Amino acid sequence: MPRQLATLVYEVPESLKETIKIGSYVNIPLRNKFEEGIVLDVSKKEPSYQTKEIIGNIFDQPILDKWQIDLMNWIATYYKAPVWNVIQLFLPPKIYPESEIKKFEDKYDEKNKHFALNEKFKLTKDQKNAFEKILNTKKVSLLHGITGSGKTEIYLHLVEKYMNEGKQSILVVPEISLTPQMIKYFQRIFGEKVAILHSKLTAKKRSIEWLKIKHNLAPIIIGPRSAIFAPTKNLGLIILDEEHEFSYKQDQIPRYHALDVIKKIAELKGDVKIVLGSATPSVESYYKAKNKEYELIELNQRIGTANLPQVHVVDLRLEFQKGNYSVLSDLMQDKITQTLANKKQVILFLNKRGSASAIVCRECGYIEKCPGCDVPMTYHKLLPQSTSHKPSLICHHCGLIKEVPIHCPTCESVSIKHVGAGTQRVEEEVHKLFPNARVARVDKDTTAKRGSFEEIYGKFKKGELDILIGTQMIGKGLHFPNVDLVGVILADIGLHFPDFQSSQRTFQLLTQVAGRAGRDKTAGEVVFQTYMPTNAAIEFAKNHDYRNFYEYEIKQRATFQYPPFENLVKMSFVHKNVKIAEEEARETYEKLKEILPESYKLNIYPALMFKLNNKYRWNLLIQGENPSKFLDQIVLTENCRVDVDPISVS
Ligand code: ADP
Ligand code: ZN
Ligand code: ZN
């Protein structure tokens, strides 16, 4: 369908009054051409200007239902996005006539009888309890279960139950390509009944899946964030797996969060069960569960004999003091030697996010933090608005500027500087120290070519590689039974990122990475290298201790009134002219200052990625009970990008 990005007003001719409805797919005249459009609203009010007539319906029935149009309007209003950006979420790449579906219907009539699983496991007592609790509650269920505790199996049984009642289920996963085992498992058991929505499918295939779902021919839908917009007819269940994942927030217009949209879908459609699953729930969700807004269901044991791996923490300050300047500590080297001798595999993990932004004292681990915001200050060679032309530290949350210390303020050491090494440097050292090991590196550079990630992944899985070095890409969902050692080169790196979500992100990542070791019979071992061995995220991840991490983190959030206590709206002013970006931000800041109540906080600061794609960015952050309601009182320029409930403020 040609996408005319606008909402326009047309007259419904007398002959079409009966058949044109909200959601109808119609032919319309536009300039001197015919175009296709979707009816978003039908009104008796006559406009004051001349309008053209709709030519005709393309299909007998509307292609979008009322709930979809209502959801569209809610997203546009809540996330301050133009409706035409929102519509895209609801439509397939191509709209095929309904007759296309006949082919599938014929095939399906035969098969659509009661379907009994032949390969599923019998649920354990704990799983059965969780299953019953989910079915019996009217609330959103939060299924908190450590990795390997059998959450997937519970999803499978739930989906089956709804299918047997004639209801559709959507299973939302962070990224299709990272969950191949889970998808294969569902396909093996449910076959044709599973529709996979994958951005890598051809437009035709995706459009056919869309039709199948719309005609209730696919009771099970698996897909990423966007799968929540599947045109279900008889939806009974939505499962959001790994509910804490940041990929559930879309980072372009409309900047929606899948969880909030799912709740709205349940409200609009009625009688839809929501299940959130995670080994490390977001503190926002866990807080709601603790406060009885959600039903909390916990699984504390791994299925079978698999144990959680033992985690060693190496204090890099001591390593530095004894003169080991390598990126691999003595313990890490020993453990690698041992693992290779046992003919097992090693993963070395390097978190790249925010790596060069903070300065750390290598003697004592000191990091300069903003006193007002408790986030690390970020090092800048030259400040955006600076006249001094001296390197400085800036708080990317409130804009506070400080000089870069020459000596560490706590231990007087002069070894206070950037930390962090790239994956390439790690690879070089590994080659030097273990010349006989077969090593591969997975990062943006080595996997730029299509299929190269899959190739390395395949080799590692087959045992043709001994050591895999990589970034976030290897942290998730991958199952390597032969990996006995996971090493984290610098566990604290994510903590240098100036954001209220940093601690949670780091904890989740470390817990997940540690879960890569010992998924089979043996427990496996994990080494975290860090300058901050007593940091909460690191200490609690070491002990696989979600609950104490939560207690710690929720107190921090309360102190600074970050979500879930108060809400945030971020506005970014983006322009290729640095002055205009700043001026517009400052003008809006002044206007907001006038209308915001006393209890609201308002900050202005340059974005962490101050210059991106040749454009400069200044941010405003409003913090308070309901910050988005004030946006309607100010005029926003086209250079302003609004993010309601941002997951990063930097
Ligand atoms: P999670 O999703 O919580 O990480 P999984 O559902 O993948 O956990 O289960 C972990 C392992 O235990 C898998 O290998 C799975 O096949 C197995 N498993 C799960 N439930 C059962 C069960 N009821 N009986 C036997 N094995 C099970
Ligand atoms: Zn120091
Ligand atoms: Zn600050």
Largest sheet: 7 strands, parallel
How many separate structural domains? 5
Q: Flag low-confidence runs.
A: none
Percent in strands: 15-25%
**What is the C-level CATH assignment of the largest domain?**
Alpha Beta
- The total count of strands amounts to 25
- CATH fold-level topology of the largest domain: Rossmann fold
Shape: globular
User: What oligomeric state do the depicted chains represent?
Assistant: single chain
Q: Strands of the biggest beta sheet: in what spatial order?
A: 6-7-5-8-9-4-10
Q: Would you identify the CATH H-level superfamily of the largest domain?
A: P-loop containing nucleotide triphosphate hydrolases
Instruction: Please compute the radius of gyration using only Cα atoms.
Output: 27 Å
- Structure classification: alpha/beta
What key phrases describe this protein's structure?
single chain, 650 residues, alpha/beta, GIY-YIG endonuclease, Rossmann fold, 5 domains, seven-stranded parallel β-sheet, 17 helices, binds adenosine-5'-diphosphate, binds zinc ion
What would a concise description of this structure say?
This protein is α/β, with parallel strands linked by helices and 650 residues long. Helices cover 29% and strands 20% of the residues.
Task: Provide an overview of this structure.
The protein is an alpha/beta fold. It folds into five domains: 14-90, 3-Layer(aba) Sandwich (GIY-YIG endonuclease); 99-299, P-loop containing nucleotide triphosphate hydrolases (Rossmann fold), CATH 3.40.50.300; 310-354 and 422-556, 3-Layer(aba) Sandwich (Rossmann fold); 356-420, no CATH class; 567-644, Ribosomal protein S10 (Alpha-Beta Plaits). It contains 17 helices and 25 strands. The strands form six sheets. A seven-stranded parallel beta sheet has the order 6-7-5-8-9-4-10, with helices on both faces. Strands 11-21-20-12-19-18 form a six-stranded parallel beta sheet, with helices on both faces. It starts with 24 loop residues before the first strand and ends in a 6-residue tail after the last strand. The structure holds adenosine-5'-diphosphate (ADP) and zinc ion (2 copies). Adenosine-5'-diphosphate (ADP) binds next to helix 5.
